[in-house]
Write a structure and sequence with these properties.
By secondary structure, the chain is mainly alpha-helical. The chain has two domains: 2-266 and 432-483, Serine Threonine Protein Phosphatase 5, Tetratricopeptide repeat (Alpha Horseshoe), CATH 1.25.40.390; 290-366, no CATH class. Helix content is 45%, strand content 6%. The protein has helices at residues 2-7, 9-19, 35-44, 46-59, 77-88, 102-105, 116-138, 149-172, 200-217, 231-245, 248-261, 301-305, 312-315, 323-327, 376-389, 393-405, 419-433, 440-446, 478-483; strands spanning 91-93, 182-185, 197-199, 284-288, 319-321, 371-375, 450-452, 464-466. It has a two-stranded antiparallel ribbon with strand order 1-5. The two termini are 39 Å apart.
Length: 491
């Protein structure tokens, strides 16, 4: 990753400037190089467009990519993973000396379209989309299949990043999956004028088309590191998409392919209390190798979550597991040991799930612990879910049992579960296994569940909200309404 960053300094800076203009629809200046010249150059110089792609990956971890300069919750993909974890209520802001995320935990930005915290995820994902559109256009456009293998691989990664961004926007900015509802402007060219919102079906059809193309384009790609997207990562995103659209058959097929052919083993009992800090962990499918070159410190996911980092978690804003969810973890489950259970049982920090290996309280100042985006355990859970929805309950129990065996849990109890009870258990295991990784919110909406806050929250204790409650979904931001003549309402 370090070499890619250095290689791409000029090109990535140029394209990040395109993606970071104050108005998303603004046409970027081209005094340095024309789009046509760039396309011609890219045909024979794969490093040129690979550098642009590297810049997009860097955007995913950079501070300020949600459009702010000073907000300490504005640091890319993991920042919005944490937003969604708070909205699901599985992650608790247990105390607050500094105030970051207090509004999110009280559902303020989801009810205020003028809020900066409502604006940031919209700004971030459309920034990724715009930069991805630049890469795709440079390589010949949406229907292109480049002759050079290196360019095909870059195109496949860019299409996955675009699809991934539209998928997250569809989850954060729409209450539920309604094919006919208009939800998002669908920009697929870098210089398009303002567009009205497309329907959910149109957006998801495009996401599926992008991912299908990407899987084909990446079929012979052997990536240098897990910071890059390969075909199995694209398939993983596609599995989540099928889960939302209700296509359980495709969801099952795709996840079985990943499980059987991806070469990713489930994390062991030792690894799940090993810090979640190394992208080379075999069970990680996709993550970010965080190096000193990236310059991350306090303003980062680790700066919000880890007691052993110079962080808010250490200085007075601890993030913990919901007490009700913690109590639902069996005593013999290794994952219960991920959390520090002090006398009284309410202060449940993830001291054995997310930590800097040195384990010096407040010690890590320059961040080198890595970010996880996707794990093979997610595919086991999605596969079990798909099997259960298709009526293959034996298959669902067997797949879930494989995961539980790695967590020290005797899965014999699964034999007594069927129908809604089996799906409820799969949902619970999503929440336990993937706690703090930004996936609980996706499961909440996919399973169409309600969330009830435990006793250790600072606000709304005991309150129950259904998945499609307005307070759990962001609004179209004020800036988009002001700049896009086709959008004049928040919803």
């Amino acid at each position: 990753m370090k070499n890619n960053i250095k290689r791409s300094i000029f090109v990535a800076s140029l394209f990040l400037a395109l993606g970071c203009s104050e108005d998303y629809l603004e046409t970027a200046p081209t005094e340095f190089i024309s789009a046509e010249d760039l396309q011609d150059a890219a045909q024979n110089n794969p490093d040129l467009v690979a550098g642009i792609l590297s810049g997009i990956y860097t955007t995913m971890v950079q501070t300020g990519t949600g459009g702010t300069d000073l907000d300490h919750d504005d640091f890319g993909q993991k920042g919005y993973d944490l937003y969604s974890d708070f909205l699901s209520s599985d992650v608790v802001l247990a105390a607050t000396n500094y105030g970051w995320y207090r509004g999110v935990t009280e559902y303020v930005p989801t009810q205020d379209f003028t809020s900066n915290s409502n604006y940031k995820p919209w700004r971030y994902y459309y920034r990724i989309i715009r930069s991805s559109n630049e890469v795709i256009a440079t390589l010949g456009g949406n229907d292109a299949v480049p002759e050079l293998a290196e360019n095909r691989w870059v195109l496949g990664q860019a299409k996955t990043l675009r699809a991934h961004s539209y998928f997250y926007l569809s989850q954060l900015f729409a209450n539920s999956y309604d094919p006919s509802a208009e939800i998002l402007p669908l920009y697929v060219e870098p210089a398009q004028e303002a567009l009205p919102r497309s329907s959910t079906k149109e957006v998801f059809d495009y996401i599926i088309a992008d991912l299908t193309d990407a899987i084909s384009l990446l079929s012979d790609f052997n990536r240098e590191n897990k910071s890059q997207i390969n075909d199995f990562v694209a398939k993983g995103v596609l599995a989540y998409v099928y889960g939302v659209t209700g296509d359980a058959a495709q969801m099952k097929t795709v996840t079985e392919d990943i499980i059987n052919n991806g070469g990713f083993p489930l994390m062991s009992a030792t690894e799940v209390v090993g810090g979640f800090n190394d992208v080379n962990t075999p069970g990680w499918m996709w993550g970010q190798d965080i190096t000193t070159d990236l310059g991350l410190d306090l303003v980062s996911w680790w700066g919000q979550m880890d007691l052993y980092t110079y962080s808010y978690a250490w200085a007075g804003d601890p993030k913990t597991i919901d007490k009700g969810l913690f109590d639902a973890i069996p005593a013999n489950d290794v994952r219960k040991g991920q959390f520090f259970n002090e006398p009284g049982g309410d202060y449940l920090m993830p001291l054995n799930k997310f930590y800097d290996p040195a384990k010096v309280i407040g010690g890590q100042r320059v961040i080198t612990t890595d970010y996880v985006y996707m794990r093979i355990a997610e595919m086991y859970l999605l596969n079990a879910e798909a099997a259960a929805r298709l009526g293959d309950e034996a298959g669902a129990r067997a797949r879930l049992g494989e995961l539980l065996a790695k967590r020290g849990v005797d899965s014999a109890y699964l034999n007594g579960l069927s129908g809604a009870n089996l799906l409820d258990e799969i949902y619970l295991q999503n929440r336990i296994e993937l706690w703090g990784e930004g996936k609980s919110y996706l499961a909440l909406k996919r399973f169409k569940k309600s969330t009830t806050r435990g006793t250790n929250h600072l606000s709304n204790v005991g309150q129950t909200l259904p998945y499609d409650d307005e307070r759990l979904t962001f609004e179209i931001p004020e800036s988009e309404i002001q700049n896009n003549p086709f959008i004049n309402t928040q919803n």
